[in-house]
Every structure is written in structure tokens, then in C-alpha cells.
Design goal:
Blueprint: E1 6-9, H1 13-25, E2 29-34, H2 42-46, E3 49-52, H3 58-61, H4 65-75, E4 79-81, H5 91-99, E5 103-104, H6 109-116, H7 118-127, E6 135-136, E7 149-153, E8 162-165, H8 168-186, E9 191-195, E10 201-209, E11 215-227, E12 230-236, H9 243-260, E13 264-272, E14 278-284, H10 291-298, H11 302-310, E15 326-333, E16 335-336, E17 342-343, E18 346-347, E19 358-361, E20 368-369, E21 376-384, H12 387-400, H13 410-418, H14 420-423, H15 431-434, H16 436-439, H17 446-467, E22 483-489, E23 493-501, E24 507-511, E25 514-524, E26 527-532, E27 536-545, E28 548-553, E29 556-562, E30 577-579, E31 584-589, E32 596-597, E33 602-608, E34 611-616, E35 621-626, E36 633-634, E37 639-644
Parallel strand pairs: 1-2, 1-4, 2-3, 4-5
Antiparallel strand pairs: 6-9, 7-8, 7-9, 10-11, 10-13, 11-12, 12-15, 13-14, 15-21, 16-17, 18-20, 19-21, 22-23, 22-29, 23-24, 24-25, 25-26, 26-27, 27-28, 28-29, 30-37, 31-33, 31-36, 32-35, 33-34, 35-37
């Protein structure tokens, strides 16, 4: 037995908080490390101690091994937990931790090295009798490949450095882009080429091994709903597995773990085709983002198990506890599903998550979401006796969640959980593409717009009334004339409201030719209630920051902008201008001023939250100007280039 009294978490965000909470329950002190961008983050404040590991660029701060070891020495931390991402699957880091006389809470360095390379892991799986996907070598003739092909980073995961190639002509560009992302995310640009399985299910097995040659599996997780090869919804148990296949996959995962002497928590990932045949995909030698669904159904704390194993304890069980009910997790991300999942930035003005779900999040009110890190803000997880009930609980929690100030995928996730195909278990890795039309956002109905406008009017009156109790609502010296407010929703929808006070302290609000008679209303913090027309009591949450306002009612949040009474007519769009669809860093400028380009020609490549996005010319023409340079940080809607006929 080795003693662990203080743990340094070599990570950030929600996973750092997650590890710290278990450490605190176990009586273990914690140390956070942070970049300058994370100086005020919740995980830094939660830790017992925190050490700045700048001044490299924010993302790279967490990748400098010597700085992490120095932080451990400075604070007297005897163990390091790597979380996931960053250096969690870096064999050199695990080895450096051990050589420094510290405990690495994860597999031994040689195991990480063997399984960290997808190519070597595939060979180990084949030797263990586990079926694998057919693959190719980079030097082979692309014309001989069986397309479609999957290009992926050998050293990574999470969809980084991964591209689908439909023919030989797409291969060179796909490999270049994948290699760039792999180098940026994992420090290793080695690629793997494999046959792409159409419409597969992505099913993984959680394994756990101790240092006494015992490896067990803790059942499966279904992770088939993905976008850009990154998981969106995860659950256990999988509706696709019968007892025989579940046992076969669990047995294969354990045998693979035994073959390499696996120690700690890890995940063996498989894909299954439409016929039910499963193939080895990779091994993640770390804790997975989706580990909470396993915890909720088997009753184990996987971080606690990791620490127990790192101390040298026996697992104490020969098989997994039986599963109880169903658990479903969704990943809450700062991204816009309606703009091809582009990452978003902004300020979290408020955060309120219903207590009906487990919330592993790394943000709080006031958090600034920038471009430096992955777009995931955290996870919400529901556990219930049945799959349908778990989906309903989680969907309802998403609809009630209050997160004004930032565009997220919250409403998109709620739609997925309510979709008939999801509820019936008809899912695979192309679920989002196949149902894109049904899952796309719809323009809010007239009643939603009306309620939002009424709520904003009443919120303004109630706020002024609190500031000056003697002021009547909507007072003006010409009582027959309405006060007017105009809001815009998005780029094209305009909502105008006129209002005036009525007898007994009520308010009449006219919107689109229809008047809503409000007989009573009140405000409690950001929660507004009002009674309209025939006694119908409505509720909404409202937050106003300057001219921006967010209104949430009946599961839908609308972001509206109050229009000035005297608009600035000087602002206009540059003809032929191409703007940044998101904040990011310019990593490539692919054309020169004066160059003739065809429609769709790549012009500028932006990088944000570890993903690259190419801005292309909308029409054929001449590049009249380039307004950015490589290395420059740009805001959303920044003019990048001008192309005209």
C-alpha cells in the first residue's frame, strides 16, 4: 500500500472539478494548475492549492511536463491525476511522473505506449483474437484502397485529426488537415488509414485493472450519436446488445487488458456493423468523458477506484456489480448546431441546472468562454429505472436549464432525446446527419414571440418599479399613446410592442395587432410571472444586459436585441466581404490579393477550440483584399477578405 495524501490534477474544467470532489470525499488534499486564461475558473477556486503554469499560450500551458512536475514539488503533491485529454495518454508524461518519485494515477507508461498508438493497439488486439477493421499503410497506392476510408490520428481520440474520405482525390487534403489537427492536439501527427464502416454503432467497454493481475469489465456504453466523430449522447446499457454479444464484447475487452497487464481505468472501444459483427477500434488509457453513466448504473466511483488501484489495493471483486436501470449523458457544448456546430464564445451571465440530474460542469455565472480550449462545458446525466424515463428526465432538465449569454447545443440535445428514432433505439453514428432536418431549429412560434415580448415589457416595468416604487407602470403624460419597444431576433425577425397601463395596476401590451391584457405580474430575481387575458398564469426567466436580453419560457430561450430609436445608418456590409463565422486564430492564408478564384476556393483557415474551419469564396471572382495575417486572433464577424467579380 502506498499513501496518497495530496493529488495534483494536471487538467482543467469540469474533469478537474470531478476529480477534486472525489479526493475531498476521500480526505485527500488537491492542487490545481492553471493557465492565465483559467486564473478565475471554478476548478482553481475549488482546489486546496493552485499553481500558475504559464506563460506559454493558454492551451500549451497544460502540456509542459516540467512545469507540472515543478508544481507538484512546490506543493508537496505525491500523486498526479491526468484527467482526460492533454497529457492523459502521454507515455512520456507517465514515465516522467514515476521517475520523479510521484504516483501516476493511471496505467504504467509502457501500457500507455503500447495502446496509445492505434497501430500497435490494433496488432495487440489481433494477437488476442479480437476482430479488427481492415487497414492500410500511408505508403500504399491510394487507388487500391477500398473506399470510403477513415483517416485518423494514431495518437489521439475525440474526433481530433479524423476525416472520412470518399475517393482517392480527397485523400491528400484530408491527410493534411488530419495531420495538422493531430499535431496540434496530441503532439504526434502519425495517421492511421482504415476501411470506413457505414452506419456503425459505437459501443465501448469500461475495464478496470489492479496491480495484482486482475482485470474486470464494468459493462458497456453506447456512444453512437456523434458529430464530427465526437460523442454527443452516451448511455448504458446499450439496446443493441443481447446477453450473448454483451458477454463476448466484455470478454474480448478483458482479454485485451490482460494481454498488456492493464492497471487502472480504461476503455476498449468497438464499432458494430448493421449485421451485428463488432470490431476493435482503440483503447483509451484514461478516464472517459462518459464515465458517469457507468458509475450511476453500477454504484462505483471510478475516480475512487483509480486512486485505490494507484495505492496498490486489490479491486476486491471478480466481476462487475449488476447494472441498475439506465443512465444517459449529454455533452453540453459552446457551439451552434445551426451553424455547422461552429464553436461559440461569450459570458455565462447565469447558470441554473435542475437538481433532477447529475451535472458535471466546469462553468459558473460569470465564466468567460474563449477560444483556447475544447467547446465542451460539461455533462448532464440522468438515471432512471427505464431508458424512456431517463430520456424524459434529461430532456426536461435541458429545457429548464437556464444559461443566458452563450449559444450552446442545449435545445438541440433536448430534441435528440425526444426524437422517436432515438426513443426506439434506432441509432448509429450517422443519426444526426440522417435526422438533420427534423432536429434543425424552427423559427419560434407566434405565441413564444408574444410571451417573450410581453415578458420583456413587464420585466422593464417591474425593474423600474423596484427602483422607484412610486412610479406607475408605463406612465407618460399622454395616456392614450402607447410606449413603443422594438426587438430583433436573429438577423431578420423583428418584434414590436406597444404598451400602456390599465386600471388596477395592469398593463395592456399590443403585439402584431393583438393585445394582451395583463392583470397582475411580479418579479423574483430573474423569474417573472404574469396573469394574462382569461386568468392564464405564465412564467418566464428574463435577463437583460444592456441592449441584449434573454427570455426563457416553455423550454425555449430567445436572445433578443433592443433596437435603438435612432439607428446608425452608417454601418453596412462590405460588398463581396467574407467574414469570420467564429472567433479564432488564423492558421493559414491560402490566396493572395489579385488572385482569381473559383466559387468554393479555400481562402483562410481558422482554428478555434482545437478544430479547424475553412472559409471559402462564395462566388468566383478576384481577391480584392486580404485583411488578416497568419497568427492573428480574430473575433466573430471580422472581415477576412473581399472577393468580387
Amino acid at each position: 500500500m502506498r499513501s496518497i495524501d495530496k493529488v495534483l490534477i494536471a487538467n482543467r474544467g469540469e474533469i478537474a472539478l470531478r476529480v477534486m470532489r472525489t479526493c475531498r470525499e476521500m480526505g485527500i488534499a488537491t492542487v490545481a494548475v492553471y493557465s492565465d486564461a483559467d486564473a478565475a475558473a471554478p476548478f482553481v477556486r475549488f482546489a486546496d492549492e493552485a499553481v500558475r503554469i504559464g506563460p506559454p499560450p493558454a492551451r500549451e500551458s497544460y502540456l509542459v511536463i516540467n512545469n507540472l512536475l515543478d508544481a507538484a514539488r512546490k506543493t508537496g503533491a505525491g500523486a498526479i491525476h491526468p484527467g482526460y485529454g492533454f497529457l492523459s495518454e502521454n507515455a512520456a508524461f507517465a514515465e516522467a511522473v514515476t521517475e520523479a518519485g510521484l504516483i501516476f494515477i493511471g496505467p504504467p507508461a509502457d501500457v500507455i505506449a503500447k495502446l496509445g498508438s492505434k497501430q500497435q493497439a490494433k496488432q495487440i488486439a489481433q494477437a488476442a483474437g479480437v476482430p479488427v477493421v481492415p487497414g492500410y499503410r500511408e505508403g500504399d497506392d491510394p487507388k487500391t484502397f477500398d473506399y470510403p476510408l477513415l483517416v485518423k490520428a494514431s495518437a489521439g481520440g475525440g474526433g481530433k485529426g479524423m476525416r472520412i474520405v470518399r475517393g482517392p482525390g480527397e485523400l491528400a487534403e484530408a491527410m493534411e488537415r488530419a495531420r495538422g489537427e493531430a499535431k496540434s492536439s496530441f503532439g504526434d501527427d502519425t495517421l492511421l488509414l482504415e476501411k470506413y464502416i457505414e452506419r456503425p454503432r459505437h459501443i465501448e467497454i469500461q475495464i478496470l485493472g489492479d496491480s495484482h493481475k486482475k482485470v474486470v469489465h464494468l459493462w458497456e456504453r453506447e456512444c453512437s450519436i456523434q458529430r464530427r466523430h465526437q460523442k454527443v449522447v452516451e448511455e448504458t446499457p446499450s439496446v443493441a446488445l443481447d446477453p450473448a454479444r454483451r458477454a463476448a464484447m466484455g470478454k474480448a475487452a478483458v482479454e485485451l487488458g490482460m494481454a498488456v497487464g492493464y492497471v487502472g481505468a480504461g476503455t476498449v472501444e468497438f464499432i458494430a456493423d448493421q449485421a451485428g459483427q463488432f470490431y476493435f477500434l482503440e483503447v483509451n488509457t484514461r478516464l472517459q468523458v462518459e464515465h458517469p453513466v457507468t458509475e450511476l448504473t453500477v454504484g462505483l466511483d471510478l475516480v475512487r477506484e483509480q486512486i485505490r488501484v494507484a495505492r496498490g489495493e486489490h479491486l476486491g471483486y471478480d466481476a462487475a456489480p449488476p447494472q441498475r436501470g439506465t443512465a444517459i449523458e449529454v455533452r453540453l457544448c459552446a457551439e451552434d448546431p445551426e451553424r455547422d456546430y461552429l464553436p461559440t464564445t461569450g459570458t455565462v451571465h447565469a447558470l441554473d441546472i435542475p437538481p433532477t440530474v447529475r451535472a458535471d460542469v466546469g462553468i459558473t455565472a460569470g465564466s468567460e468562454i474563449g477560444i483556447h480550449y475544447d467547446s465542451m462545458l460539461g455533462k448532464l446525466i440522468a438515471h432512471a429505472p427505464t431508458r424512456r424515463e431517463a430520456a424524459q428526465v434529461l430532456r426536461r432538465a435541458l429545457e429548464e436549464m437556464w444559461l443566458p449569454g452563450l449559444v450552446t447545443n442545449r435545445e438541440h440535445l433536448a430534441k435528440i432525446l425526444a426524437h422517436p428514432a432515438y426513443l426506439s433505439g434506432e441509432i448509429d453514428t450517422h443519426f444526426l446527419e440522417r435526422h438533420a432536418g427534423e432536429l434543425a431549429a424552427r423559427a419560434p412560434g407566434l405565441d413564444h414571440l408574444r410571451v417573450a415580448a410581453v415578458a420583456l415589457v413587464l420585466h422593464g416595468i417591474a425593474s423600474r418599479r423596484e427602483a422607484s416604487p412610486l412610479a406607475p407602470p408605463g406612465w407618460r403624460n399622454v395616456r392614450v399613446a402607447d410606449q413603443q419597444l422594438t426587438y430583433t431576433l436573429g438577423e431578420s425577425t423583428e418584434v414590436s410592442a406597444g404598451y400602456h397601463p390599465t386600471e388596477n395596476g395592469g398593463v395592456a401590451v399590443a403585439i402584431g395587432g393583438k393585445t394582451t391584457q395583463v392583470s397582475a405580474f411580479g418579479l423574483d430575481g430573474d423569474k417573472l410571472w404574469f396573469v394574462e387575458n382569461d386568468g392564464h398564469r405564465r412564467t418566464a426567466r428574463v435577463l437583460v444586459r444592456g441592449t441584449k436580453a434573454w427570455v426563457q419560457s416553455e423550454g425555449l430561450t430567445l436572445a433578443l436585441t433592443e433596437q435603438p430609436r435612432f439607428p446608425d445608418l452608417a454601418s453596412r456590409v462590405v460588398a463581396g466581404g467574407l467574414i469570420a463565422p467564429m472567433p479564432g486564430k488564423v492558421v493559414k492564408v491560402l490566396v493572395d490579393a489579385g488572385q482569381e478564384v473559383a466559387a468554393g476556393t479555400p481562402l483562410v483557415v481558422l482554428e478555434a477550440m482545437k478544430m479547424e474551419h475553412t472559409v471559402r469564396s462564395a462566388d468566383a471572382g478576384i481577391v480584392r483584399a486580404i485583411h488578416v495575417v497568419v497568427g492573428e486572433q480574430v473575433d466573430a464577424d471580422r472581415l477576412l477578405a473581399v472577393v468580387t467579380a
